[in-house]
Recover the amino acids of this structure.
């Protein structure tokens, strides 16, 4: 489809200077003038100068010339732009080092791709100091089913890109203001109980919206979840756009050659999606995605996605980046207006009303007592083989283990590795006759398909190790918490997975609002000094009736959190009603009861990171003072002179 | 209790202060966060925002307070804060 561009001056989107242009493949009603007319913010101006695919040329130029070639007064602008290609400059004290994010749609990789990730991590993701828990090189699996590597030098980026792209991986739009990594169940198409195999749809969306000029420059990030299973594993509730599985009976007059006939009234029962928009956890304003009363056939998913991301592109707030999220546009407009504008300006077919969803079946991170809330363990595939979900504590795996896992997967004939939103990993396609041997592999003693419940449900964000925003140490602390809980706290009967999400600040990278126990970084005073601490929330999760955590404690010293959890679980076990899940137990209690439910307490747990790790250049360095940092460094990692 | 109103991260000016609240017939104490912020682009004023931890408060609901200062007012406030800090330093020197 082609439609006339509204502009009569140079438009970078249709590249037709001086006269009305033509916009390729555009949904009806695109209004590029809306986002070119007002570009008030600094970031918008940077983006208007250079953004999208063209950033790569500059990245390669800086890689050739070295980090110091980036002019001091342009660094903020370039670092903002580099995000589009998956590169975040690390925090103060780590100048010249980057985090690199590799977007893997629905977390799916082949063993070959996983091996390449491990090899890139081993070769390039090493810094000046080792992490005491994870060693010199590792990969992080994120809550959006991507992969993050740290200590990347810009000089190495072209070689890394070449290695990744040689196996079909990319960092494109892994960060920045555009379509992010699409999330969903990695086992789509293999799951023995799903409504729709969404993998072909996600591949189509990924191919269409990555590197597409029309959607390159959105007001902010655009997060999409596509769910076709009965588990709710896409966690669409916390995404800008969620395709949720649904069925709808549609009159036979509507064209759909693949729909199946039903007997009820002569209509056709079509398997597709209900469309929800405006979910998200950030900015201390969590929202669940809201229904716009639209049913979408699988073949229309791309058109609806194009329409809604186009609507956000054109009407999202470009004056205030804090307000530039779909959830706030939905707040402002209401769902009826979103639907009507989508219908009138962006989609050229009549949108059906919503169908019947499967939400009551959802069990992923749902806090149910009758079903696990994750993919850990051995499960049947539709083809008679098995997939094996392995627990990866806080989502971090040593580079050598990544490579070993890839080799194992290949050896056992797997064609699919899956990264889950709970920071775990799945190995698909294990035949029945190979299952015992696979489970006996030594690597699975570290990444278990049958982990202790406290090792199984822990999620942590990056924290002060690398992040500019965090105010507390996270991953290593969560590892220590999990180990201490395993050794010292009895698991309440019937509990197989217990979700603790630890975030380093009020940003929501560890999704703290949707956990059994939510920990969010703060500071407090203890024994006369400032120490790292956590606000504590309880009882959040998704599923049939999603709800955000109730915040019940503020500024609990980090070394008293394990004691608090131990006391809390003791109360839960003593006072719960039958097989009531922890989440149900919390939901049944009011604010006052929850606040007094348990007391923080010092225990035998020892916390080596209590003292303001954000002031260090690296929390685990022997000499951790900011002045001891070797950064910025050159391509070889040698310190470079600075003006300071 | 309610969630915090203000976000808190490494860019927050103070994430751990001791605050006091006084009304007619009541006083309360709580830890507090205090933050100075301006718009990223073409700021027109300075916002000073304060939140006392609501878990410690009974008399008022969870909330944050904000005041907007012009550039001149912000400098005047900074000057008075600096003068007050100097007086503390001077007192400490006299006592030592």
């Amino acid at each position: 489809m082609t439609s006339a561009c509204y502009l009569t001056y140079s438009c970078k989107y249709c590249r037709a200077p001086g006269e009305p242009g033509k916009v390729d493949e555009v949904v009806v009603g695109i209004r590029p003038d809306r986002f070119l007319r007002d570009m008030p913010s600094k970031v918008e101006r940077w983006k208007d100068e250079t953004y999208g695919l063209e950033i790569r040329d500059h990245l390669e130029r800086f890689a050739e010339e070295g980090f110091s070639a980036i002019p001091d007064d342009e660094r903020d602008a370039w670092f903002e732009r580099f995000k589009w290609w998956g590169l975040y400059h690390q925090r103060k004290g780590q100048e010249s080092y980057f985090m690199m994010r590799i977007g893997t749609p629905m977390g799916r990789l082949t063993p070959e791709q996983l091996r390449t990730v491990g090899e890139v991590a081993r070769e390039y993701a090493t810094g000046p100091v080792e992490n005491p828990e994870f060693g010199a090189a590792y990969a992080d699996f994120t809550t959006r089913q991507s992969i993050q590597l740290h200590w990347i030098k810009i000089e190495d980026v072209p070689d890394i890109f070449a290695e990744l792209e040689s196996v079909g991986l990319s960092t494109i739009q892994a960060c920045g203001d555009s379509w992010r990594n699409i999330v969903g169940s990695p086992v789509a198409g293999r799951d023995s109980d799903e409504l729709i195999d969404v993998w072909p749809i996600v591949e189509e969306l990924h191919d269409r919206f990555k590197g597409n000029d029309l959607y390159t420059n959105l007001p902010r990030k655009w997060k999409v979840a596509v769910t076709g299973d009965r588990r709710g594993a896409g966690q669409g509730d916390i995404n800008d756009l969620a395709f949720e599985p649904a069925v709808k009976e549609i009159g036979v007059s509507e064209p759909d050659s693949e729909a199946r006939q039903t007997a009820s009234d002569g209509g056709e029962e079509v398997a597709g999606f209900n469309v929800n928009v405006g979910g998200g956890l950030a900015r201390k304003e969590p929202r669940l995605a809201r229904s716009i009363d639209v049913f979408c056939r699988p073949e229309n998913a791309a058109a609806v996605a194009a329409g809604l991301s186009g609507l956000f592109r054109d009407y999202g707030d470009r004056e205030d980046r804090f307000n530039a999220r779909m959830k706030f546009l939905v707040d402002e407009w209401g769902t009826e207006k979103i639907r009507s504008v989508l219908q009138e300006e962006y989609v050229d077919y009549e949108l059906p009303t919503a169908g019947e969803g499967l939400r009551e079946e959802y069990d992923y991170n749902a806090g149910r007592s009758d079903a696990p809330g994750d993919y850990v363990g051995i499960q049947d595939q539709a083809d008679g083989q098995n997939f094996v979900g392995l627990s990866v504590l806080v989502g971090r795996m040593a580079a050598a283990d990544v490579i070993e896992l890839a080799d194992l997967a290949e050896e056992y004939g797997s064609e699919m590795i899956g990264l889950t939103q709970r920071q775990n990993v799945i190995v698909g396609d294990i035949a029945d006759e190979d299952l015992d041997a696979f489970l006996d592999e030594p690597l699975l003693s570290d990444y278990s398909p049958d982990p202790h419940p406290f090792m199984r449900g822990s999620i942590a964000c990056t924290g002060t190790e690398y992040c500019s925003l965090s105010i507390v140490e996270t991953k290593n602390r969560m590892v220590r918490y999990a180990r201490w809980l395993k050794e010292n706290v009895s698991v309440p009967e019937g509990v197989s997975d217990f979700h603790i999400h630890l975030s380093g600040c009020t940003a929501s990278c560890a999704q703290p609002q949707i956990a059994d126990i939510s920990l969010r970084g703060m500071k407090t005073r203890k024994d006369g000094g400032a120490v790292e601490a956590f606000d504590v929330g309880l009882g959040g999760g998704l599923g049939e009736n999603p709800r955000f955590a109730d915040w019940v404690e503020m500024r609990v010293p980090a070394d008293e959190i394990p004691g608090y959890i131990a006391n809390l679980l003791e109360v839960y076990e003593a006072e719960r009603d039958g097989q009531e899940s922890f989440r149900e137990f919390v939901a049944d209690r009011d604010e006052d009861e929850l606040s007094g439910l348990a007391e923080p307490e010092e225990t035998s747990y020892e916390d080596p990171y209590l003292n303001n790790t954000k002031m260090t250049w690296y929390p685990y360095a022997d000499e951790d003072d900011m002045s001891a940092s070797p950064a910025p460094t050159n391509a070889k990692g040698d310190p470079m002179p600075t003006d300071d | 209790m309610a969630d915090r109103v203000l976000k808190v991260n490494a860019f927050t000016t103070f994430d751990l202060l001791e605050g006091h609240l006084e009304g007619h017939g009541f006083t309360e104490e709580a830890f507090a966060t205090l933050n100075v912020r301006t718009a990223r682009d073409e700021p027109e004023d300075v916002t000073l925002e304060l939140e006392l931890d609501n878990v410690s408060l009974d008399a008022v609901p969870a909330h944050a307070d904000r005041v907007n200062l012009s550039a001149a007012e912000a400098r005047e406030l900074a000057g008075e804060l600096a003068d007050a800090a100097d007086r503390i330093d001077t007192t400490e020197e006299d006592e030592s």
